[in-house]
Amino acid sequence: MEITEKGFIFSDDRNLVDVNAVHNYLSTQSYWAKEIPFELVQKSIANSLCFGVYKDGKQAGFARWVTDKATFAYLCDVYIEENFRGLGLSKKLMSLMMFHPDLQGLRTYCLATLDAHGLYAQFGFKPVGSPEKLMEIRIQDIYINGKGEM
């Protein structure tokens, strides 16, 4: 699937993803994946349903779903490069991703965010209804110190 709008290309073609650009953003600018190794970004892209935003052949944004394409999808690594923010690209990207044919009829769509609740609420996301049912193992700063701490 590929859509062109206002000079930007939105695509689910994993082969178009500039892994170096995504790694650079995640490892240096994101709050969730600081110092993530290149090989892990490469592996995560290879094993996810990926979406890119491109301008003049360069990566302007990215997002990916970790999904079984049957019951569950977890949205992660969503970003728009700073110089392209405020143009509605994240809303367009979310629209494309939410209506992707491989993600229809799932039981659960989830994500974690520190600061984009307003964006995701526009697409039906809301706080977890039964947080007492959720559990996690979270290894803090795993990429920063190499091993992380439980």
UniProtKB/TrEMBL annotation:
<dbReference type="InterPro" id="IPR016181">
    <property type="entry name" value="Acyl_CoA_acyltransferase"/>
</dbReference>
<keyword id="KW-0808">Transferase</keyword>
<dbReference type="Pfam" id="PF00583">
    <property type="entry name" value="Acetyltransf_1"/>
</dbReference>
<protein>
    <submittedName>
        <fullName>N-acetyltransferase</fullName>
    </submittedName>
</protein>
<dbReference type="GO" id="GO:0016747">
    <property type="term" value="F:acyltransferase activity, transferring groups other than amino-acyl groups"/>
</dbReference>
<feature type="domain" description="N-acetyltransferase">
    <location>
        <begin position="1"/>
        <end position="150"/>
    </location>
</feature>
<dbReference type="InterPro" id="IPR000182">
    <property type="entry name" value="GNAT_dom"/>
</dbReference>
<dbReference type="InterPro" id="IPR053144">
    <property type="entry name" value="Acetyltransferase_Butenolide"/>
</dbReference>
